Amino acid sequence: MDFSFKQPHTRMIDTRAFAPSIHWAEHQNIPPVQGLTRRLYDGELMYVYMGCIAVHFEDSAEPITFYSGDLLILPPAVKHRIVTMTSPNVRLLGIHFDLYDELDIEFDGDMVVSERQVKEESFCFWPNTADGRLVFARCYRSVPQEIVRLMEDISRSYQISKSDSFLVCRGYMQLILATLLSLPHESERQSSSAYEKLLFGLKVELQQNIHLPYTNKTMAQRLNVSEDHFIRLFKQTFDMSPQKYLQDLRHQAAKRYLRETDYKIEYIGGLVGYDDLHNFSHIFKKWQGISPLNYRKSFRII
Prior knowledge:
Elements lengths: L9 E3 L8 E10 L12 E8 L1 E6 L6 E4 L3 E4 L5 E5 L5 E9 L27 E3 L10 E2 L4 H16 L4 H17 L11 H16 L7 H8 L3 H12 L3 H19 L4 H7 L5 H12 L3 H9 L2
Parallel strand pairs: 1-9
Antiparallel strand pairs: 2-8, 3-6, 3-8, 4-5, 4-7, 6-10
Helix pairs in contact: 1-2, 4-5, 6-9
């Protein structure tokens, strides 16, 4: 099988030339599905809030698996197929964009290539380095929460559809790109292969049971290692401590419940592992900058 692929339109990276435009931005809840093979004219960011997806690329013999907290970047032109692997749903945030404001989109379908009528000239440009290496990786593990917040800001601004939202989204996207450029590619990260499978399995378990009182000690026992060694392994693999990762899962779930349900705030706190309303409100405000009630109100205004 031929796994070769060459990006059709590239240009030497010059961050001053970035003028990103947003074509689509939306939260998604997707049940387990095999997905169809497709190509894009533009690029797409896909953040995994909860669950697990596998992405099969035409130039790779093995799929890349993405877990909660991971970011997928789909460049233009490359054929890929996304398989959602978690029941009942995988929760994602997707943003379609181009880097140089070169693609006009009238309908959502204009972003996806129709193989019966391919418009080769419409594939957006993708940046590379002087030695021909593509600047952005396809997979970023456990991305900083600043990227997630900016993606959420883009989604919110895009849905407003006001005249100034275009420039607001462009500004947020430029901040995302700057942060991504500072992150290592997955191939450059160091991980302990002996414990990698166990760590990723534990990560999925945490996603599915955020209400449970996980401690570093109990999680270390699952790997049959000392608590200190477990914390080092987790940070080495996911770039954050296990407790910070668990807090982040709880925070993202709390925001989703506040946005998408009418549950009482105290009940939401219990769903994400905080039995005490005061403690939940205090921690939420520390992370988000506003109280759970004010966060919910900010979305009900739109």
